[in-house]
Amino acid sequence: MSMNSNVLAFSESCGESHSTLNLNVRGGLNGNGDAASFVGIVGHSSGLRNVLQLVDMVAATDATVLLLGETGTGKELIARAIHERSQRQKQSFVTLNCAAIPNSLFESELFGHERGAFTGANMQRPGRLELADRGTLFLDEVGDMPLDVQPKLLRTLQEHTYERLGSARSKSVDVRLVAATNANLEQMIEERQFRQDLYYRLNVFPIRVPPLRERREDIPLLVQHFTQKYARQMNKQIDTIPESTIQKLQRWSWPGNVRELENLIERSVILSSNSTLSVSLSEKMNSAIDAAAVVGNFEEQKRIVEILQETKGRISGPNGAAFRLGVKRSTLLDRMKKLGIDVREIRSSRSQENQVAYSL
Q1: Which domains does the chain have, with CATH numbers?
Q2: pLDDT digit of tens for each residue in the chain (360 aa)?
Q3: How far apart are CA 291 and CA 293, in angstroms?
């Protein structure tokens, strides 16, 4: 089953204006023309339509779904979409990250425990299965589930019963299971790290969520969404994203997928000092921020903007900013592009100031 691309973000469209994305232009956008049909998911790629069609097909059933894809691709969003379009939508959607629970505590976390079941069990506690009864249980990173717990989960899926840790009494459960993994479960079976019978139980309806590098056409939508999201959180006004920035982001390989892109945009919003998003793509995306370089860029940006304001946005000529700064016109344009300085903004600002002064 092969998918090409999709996008996981809120319904916000991209407008293009003179090599920038105008974030003031808003509107719903969905591959099927219906942005409201899937809350939190938007895009126009064929891969998205394929995935959502599969979600629509399987959501109305109680079939177990296995989501396959690299880390950071948005598998939990797809799991939530399945739950929200199912008959269980008014019941609980319970998540359990199998990689985050120590082996010694996993059985208790999944099935619950009775008081005194083990040292430190001072009270009875329900497990995630019980909490998800009549709803949906999402097992993330299911490949990290301990081997000794796997046959117990298999029995629960087959017989719809389980026992709390420390109890001999079986309890019935009605739960829809959605599992996700970034691991190759078939290879893990060969290496005896995952049970084959459980794999067959989970692999009833597999959906592959493609990596971001396979759906580069959706990057502008994601960049816009994350820019608006973090600008609102930080009470900053960022109106435009240079087209050159979008092109650079679309060329990146994104090993961390959407999560990596989101982290980069959050950092960029923090470092942007005007209304244009300034994104720096280094060879090492996870490297520490060079404080001296950031301060130097801020000072240079401030100096260039001040000169452009004095020259009323003129760049060339004897009275232009390039001459005043002692650099070539091409050099100044390159620096302005890197620092996210839009001369049209400065000219527009000057024009508004002149109109206000005239009216006074």
Answers
A1: 64-203 (3.40.50.300), 217-359 (1.10.8.60)
A2: 333 333 333 333 343 333 566 665 433 334 343 434 777 676 677 887 788 899 999 999 999 999 999 999 989 999 999 999 999 999 999 999 999 999 989 999 999 888 877 777 778 889 999 999 999 999 999 999 999 999 999 999 999 999 988 888 899 999 999 999 999 999 999 999 999 999 999 999 999 998 999 988 889 988 998 999 999 999 999 988 988 889 989 999 899 998 999 999 999 999 888 888 988 776 445 555 455 555 556 677 777 888 888 888 888 888 888 888 888 888 888 888 777 777 777 776 655 555 544 444
A3: 5
What pTM does this model have? 0.74
